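Researcher: Please predict.
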Amino acid sequence: MPLLRIKLPGKEVVRYEMTEDEVTVGRERGCTVVLAGDSGISKVHSRIKRSGNGFVLTDAGSANGTRLNGKGIGNASARLSNGDRIGVGSTEIVFDDPFSPKRTWLGKMLGALGGLEHPAGTDKTRKTSGGTVFGEGFVTCGKCGTKIHTGSRKPGQKVGCSRCRSVYVIPPR
């Protein structure tokens, strides 16, 4: 699941796990991520929306614009990759997505395997093997307990853990 690491000026980093298909960022109470402490942020500043098997960033008509890796995006939509830095006002948001096809060892490995889709699967357990729980649409790592989304992987294909880097083969059904 993608994670936003939010750094308001002079404050600790706050982590927000993206469970929705669309996240709004702004200083208005109705936004998914409310950043009230930054005067350079509009009421509804930007949106991060699921698109296919990834996410895109758009500016929501903000007064000061939205930046991606230091460059303004204007009225365009920009596809997000793991590690991208989103600038809104004086706040920096880092987009962490281990299933992104770029910039991480896991993304590169999954790209070589044909990529993974973000799942809409259920949590029904299918098989337990050596502490590793296999389910419909996920694998729970036997080493560290991280939930690894398998998307449309077929039996015999590999998935990797973003935390401890263990690699698992999807078992037969």
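Model: The longest strand covers residues 46-51.
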